[in-house]
Write a structure and sequence with these properties.
heterodimer, A: 231 residues, alpha/beta, six-stranded mixed beta sheet, four-stranded antiparallel beta sheet, globular, B: 400 residues, alpha+beta, six-stranded mixed β-barrel, 14 helices, 54% helix, 17% strand, elongated
Chain lengths: 231, 400
């Protein structure tokens, strides 16, 4: 029975590629894990351990070969693309290593994008929320700038604001500071911490950096497609 | 649709050079279609107007006389050498009833019974062979606008008056008010008063036609009370053949449409129309291919952005729409510019061209060509758009 604190639960999730072909390979060998409201967890592991694959499953960008993945108590493996896309847009925020803003839109419009693709033209309330988020990441003065006119750190902060505009239950961050200098990286990390405390959204952070992982409340270590430790 | 349209417009604006180039490409294509179609249809309308200025749309005559051949007796073979019958001037039987029936035929706008036959025109020692045409003037004018072709005198055929062609008047030295002796053979001759001189613009007709009152021509040609031809004008030019067939079926008379009479002209017109359609088709196709290739490049360039949009909850259908809208917008904008340019070209041709004829701008050509380009744009966008919609977000985001 899923309790109200549960955000995400993985139940024996397996993922194979090239199914039915001679080069079939299983990348995830039965992952069980649970993420709760306001968790702040790091997902670490050597490269090739299946971190990205696991993140894609959790982010509903891909669906597991076997097992089940519950988001807010809803089983997702059998969902079609349409339903999965809707659920993803509503409850999951993404921050990628290479910020990935849409170049043709201003910082404010980029922040609003997840809201706009779901609800169309933003109303007053959505605009205010986006502006407040931009202010929270310290970029209220840059609202009308295009991504090309912002520095890497600023772009990543816009991306964080964008990931939070729909008030997601889960924020997935794939090496969010991997591309930034130490000072900027620390700022971005602090922001993630702050939003985690303020909005209570669970944060799952993929990182290579053991020092960054240490500062998280919880560290999940993935080795060879299995969870090696979770503490 | 708001967000899809917004993203589509932003993408187009961002790809400035590409967008501009393809817009110019579409505009050039559409202006060629507009100009060529206007030119050819103007040319055709002109040729048809000139041809039909002196011809009825449908000509109804008595059926030809044929030999009656006695059937061969049973068991015998018959070898037959047949000469065609001489086609004497024959009246149409019951032409009054035929005229009244044709008056009520749908699609027919004018019916003019005419008696026509050969005669000699004499003045002094000069003799010219002429064609006598006896007609009911008000009816005849609705078929051939003789009143617009008068060069001298007045339009009058009653009470011994006649109208002659300009060339004939010159050959016989006639002037308005002069006398012309008409001799139809077998001692039937009369002297008429030249009331006016016309010029139809066709030398053959201007040298031979003599218009008389129906009654006078009938007595000269020994066909009292009869007519030999019923000329008909139809509302829709290209319906003439269908109406002629209807008349043939209805009356059993010989009915020939202008399309049959001018088979060669029709052939030329049809070939012209076909080549116009082919030009339009191939230009539209190259426009479509241009749009398709520009959008295909755009999908490749934006793969990562498409992945991000998908990750943020953009549905496949929305992604599809973003690129279909781009195709439609390119089609509408490019064809608008192109149609205006084509219109301008027509104007330039009319003002500075050889001025042999005027090209009217066919109504509906601009919207039709814009519709064509827009539909072509959407269809062309379908392939790249469906590729964008099918992109796997995981791979799209990883795309360098």
């Amino acid at each position: 029975m899923p309790d109200s604190r549960e955000v995400l639960r993985l139940d024996g999730v397996r993922k194979s590629y090239n199914i039915g072909q001679p080069n079939e390979v299983e990348v995830l060998h039965g992952i069980d894990m649970r993420v709760e409201h306001a968790d702040f967890a790091a997902l670490v592991g050597p490269s090739g351990s299946g971190k990205s694959t696991l993140l894609n499953q959790i982010g509903l960008l891909d669906s597991p070969t076997a097992g089940e993945l519950y988001l807010l108590g809803k089983p997702t493996r059998e969902m079609d693309d349409e339903a999965r896309t809707a659920l993803r847009g509503r409850h999951i925020g993404f921050v990628f290593q290479f910020h990935h803003l849409i170049g043709a839109f201003s910082a404010l419009e980029n922040v609003l994008m997840p809201h706009m693709v779901a609800h169309g033209k933003p109303d007053r309330e959505a605009l205010d929320r986006a502006r407040n988020l931009l202010a929270d990441v310290g970029l209220e003065k840059f609202a009308d700038r295009k991504p090309g006119e912002l520095s890497g750190g600023q772009q990543q902060r816009v991306a964080i604001a964008r990931a939070l505009v729909t008030r997601p239950a889960l924020l997935l961050a794939d090496e969010p500071t991997g591309n930034l200098d130490t000072k900027t990286a620390a700022d971005v990390f602090k922001l993630l911490r702050r939003f985690n405390a303020e909005f209570g959204c669970a944060v799952l952070l993929v990182t290579h950096d053991p020092r960054l992982a240490e500062t998280c409340d919880r560290t999940i270590t993935l080795v060879d497609g299995r969870i090696d430790s979770d503490q | 649709m708001w967000i899809e349209t917004t993203i589509a417009m932003r993408f187009l604006r961002q790809g400035r050079a590409q967008t501009l180039l393809i817009l110019v490409g579409i505009a050039v294509g559409v202006s060629v279609i507009v100009f060529v179609v206007a030119l050819i249809s103007g040319l055709q309308a002109n040729v048809i107007a000139r041809t039909l200025g002196t011809q009825a749309h449908v000509r109804v005559e008595a059926p030809e006389e044929v030999n009656r051949i006695a059937p061969a007796a049973a068991g015998t073979a018959q070898l037959l050498l047949e000469d065609r019958r001489a086609q004497a001037l024959r009246p149409i039987v019951n032409w009054q009833q035929v005229r009244d029936a044709l008056d009520h035929l749908p699609g027919v706008t004018a019916v003019s019974p005419v008696v026509s036959g050969p005669a000699f025109g004499r003045r002094g020692d000069a003799v010219e062979s002429v064609a006598l045409i006896g007609m009911d003037l008000p009816r005849y004018l609705r078929v051939i606008p003789l009143d617009e072709n008068m060069v001298e005198g007045r339009l009058d055929v009653g009470s011994g008056n006649a109208l002659v062609g300009r060339q004939l008047a010159q050959d016989l030295g006639l002037r308005t008010g002069g006398k012309l002796r008409l001799d139809a053979g077998d001692g039937r001759a009369t002297v008429v008063n030249v009331a006016g001189i016309f010029e139809l613009g066709v030398r053959e007709l201007d040298a031979r036609y003599v218009y008389l009152d129906l009654k006078q021509a009938q007595s000269l040609l020994a066909l009292p009370g009869g007519v030999t031809v019923i000329d008909i004008t139809v509302a829709e030019l290209f319906e003439a053949e269908r109406i002629a067939a209807r008349i043939r079926g209805l009356t059993g008379l010989k009915a020939e449409s202008w399309m049959e009479t001018n088979a060669q002209l029709m052939n030329a017109l049809t070939s012209q129309s076909m080549s116009t359609n082919m030009i339009s088709f191939f230009v539209a196709m190259s426009v479509a291919l241009g749009i398709a290739s520009v959008l295909a490049v755009s999908v490749t360039q934006r793969t990562r952005e498409i992945g991000i949009l998908r990750a943020m909850g953009t549905r496949r259908r929305q992604m599809l729409q973003v690129f279909l809208v781009q195709g439609a917008v390119l089609g509408v904008a490019g064809s608008l510019i192109g149609a205006l340019a084509g219109w301008g070209l027509v104007g330039i041709f009319n003002t500075f061209g050889p001025k042999l004829f005027y090209i009217p701008m066919p109504a509906g050509l601009v919207p039709a060509s814009m519709l064509l380009a827009t539909v072509a744009g959407v269809i062309a966008a379908a392939v790249p758009a469906s590729r964008a919609a099918r992109l796997d977000p995981v791979e799209a985001i990883r795309h360098a």
